[in-house]
């Protein structure tokens, strides 16, 4: 990716991309981060507007599902950094796409269930970073899915239960959202441990 375009992506400046002759999904950093990855990583707080993301996806819809070298999609990053408005936009964009003809799974659910190189879904990322607003959105959209363990044997609930500090309000909200919204909750953790083990270790309780 050209340094000028990289800086524009960091700043959320749509101008340089409007007349770009290269397909936007081919503009990559050495780590195969796309324009959206670069933008989302650079937002230290939740963006007030989703204008940049929306415009980029309007010009290049495949970016919605495109992963970097770590297998992270834009949804993974938006969930990690708590950009709930971007998460909602990405889901809205995915919902507008046709379902997979073989599995009949909607594109939105396919995106929600995509895993990165560590086996984490966007919900794993949101739980790990105590992003309760994002967790609320994600669990509402895919209530029936039993989120699997990642490569470390951790489910989203286990991750939420093992977060320090255990008494934080955001952590409590994350646990409540997962238990309350998900129909089929997997409590599993590594080495035969469960979310309950993690909660007890942290001095907490899950009811």
From TrEMBL:
Protein name: Ankyrin repeat family protein
PROSITE patterns named among the record's database cross-references: ANK_REP_REGION (PS50297), ANK_REPEAT (PS50088)
Keywords: ANK repeat
Residues in ANK repeats: 70-93, 118-150
UniProt organism field: Populus tomentosa
Keyword match Zinc: no
Ribonucleoprotein in keyword set: no
Pfam families: Ank_2
Transmembrane segments: none
């Amino acid at each position: 990716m050209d340094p000028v375009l990289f800086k524009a992506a960091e700043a959320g400046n749509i101008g340089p991309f409007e007349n770009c002759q290269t397909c936007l999904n081919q503009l990559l950093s050495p780590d195969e981060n796309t324009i959206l990855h670069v933008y989302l990583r650079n937002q230290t707080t939740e963006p007030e507007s989703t204008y940049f993301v929306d415009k980029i996806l309007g010009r290049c819809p495949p970016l919605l599902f495109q992963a970097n070298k770590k297998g992270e999609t834009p949804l993974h990053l938006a969930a990690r950094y708590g950009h709930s408005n971007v998460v909602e936009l990405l889901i809205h964009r995915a919902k507008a796409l046709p379902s997979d003809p073989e599995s009949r799974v909607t594109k939105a659910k396919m995106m929600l269930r995509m895993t990165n190189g560590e086996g984490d879904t966007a919900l794993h990322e949101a739980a790990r970073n105590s992003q309760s607003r994002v967790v609320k959105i994600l669990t509402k959209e895919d209530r029936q899915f039993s989120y699997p363990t990642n490569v470390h044997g951790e489910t989203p609930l286990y991750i939420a239960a093992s977060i320090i500090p255990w008494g934080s309000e955001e952590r409590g909200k994350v646990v409540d959202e997962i238990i309350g919204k998900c129909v089929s909750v997997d409590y599993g953790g590594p080495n035969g441990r469960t979310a309950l083990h993690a909660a007890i270790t942290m001095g907490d309780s899950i009811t």
